[in-house]
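G., the chain you wanted modeled:
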Amino acid sequence: MTDKQDTQTTPKATSGQAKANKPAATKVAQKSAKGGRMAGILALLALLLGAYTSYQIWLTNQQLANLQQASQQQASVQESLAGEVSRAGAEVVSLKSSWQQQKQTLAKQQQNMDVALQEALQQMAQTQNQSQQQLPKWELAEAEYLLRLANQRLAMEQNPAAVITLLQAADEIMRSSEQVGGYLVRQAIATDIGALSSVSVVDVEGVYARLAGLLEQSLGLNYIAVIPLKAAEENGAADATNEETPVETLTWDQKAWQVAGDLAEGTWQELQSLVRIQERTSADQWLLSPDMEVLLAMRLQLGLTQAQAALLRGQQDIYQSSLAQVASLLHDYYRHSDPVVQAMQAQITQLSQLQLLTEMPDISSSLYALQDLQAAIYDQQGE
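Predicted structure as tokens:
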């Protein structure tokens, strides 16, 4: 009986023991699966970290190579701009010297002509019989000379003020003579004076001096890096988004997956930025190197020097385009609140509105009227 009872008891104990071991085996299997999942996550993190590190090393090497290439290009451009500035400066000096020489030559020719006129008029006055003439011939000759000289000066110098002075002198001669028929000549002179009075003339020396002053001011400008408005807005929006994002309680698995996702997203953003590494737009100009500041200063000087040369040559298009280039550089690369920049911009705006070449009126009508009067007097005397 005892053996039978033991035989019956043994299967029951074995069955109870199996039931007791079953939850333990399940827990072991769950721990094993969880450990495998964690190992996979850690392997993925290690893979991403290794890839990210390798990519950062490669990116650094690429950036160093790009910086070296950009430095070489900047040095080449700087050397080229220095040559252009030097050549433009020498050309302006030569043009200014030539312009001054022309002015001196014209003044000397004018003086010689005045002396010759005085000598001729004195000789005519001494030899002429003035008894039967209401208007002596030497006075007619003097008025005619003044009108001819006015036409020549207008064509060569384009100086309405000096020409008006000559016309007024000729009109005074006609007024004091009280010659019959002289009214038509004076009327023509008055018409020519009115036409010249409405002409605006550029003071070349004054404008040249103002451009030289801008050159001096440009040497004292300091490039100030200003973060573009667009980038600032993007950063502000990103900060606002981060502030509004609620903080959630995450499990260890979720945190691990989040770190992996962040690494992947950061790597993707770095790749996207690499694609645009050569781009230079107004949104990233604030990243310019100090060497670029030198290039900017040279470009400002070159633009102002070209404007001076165009002023002396009377080249309206080149003059305006050079000033527009200078204004664009000041607007894009220098702080708008800087008083020096504001003053330069205001002067450039005024100078850009000047018309270097003005169409001069025809003032030959007064000369023709005087010649007609002289012909009438000679015909009357011949009769």
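The chain is about 80% helix and 0% strand.

Shout if anything looks off.
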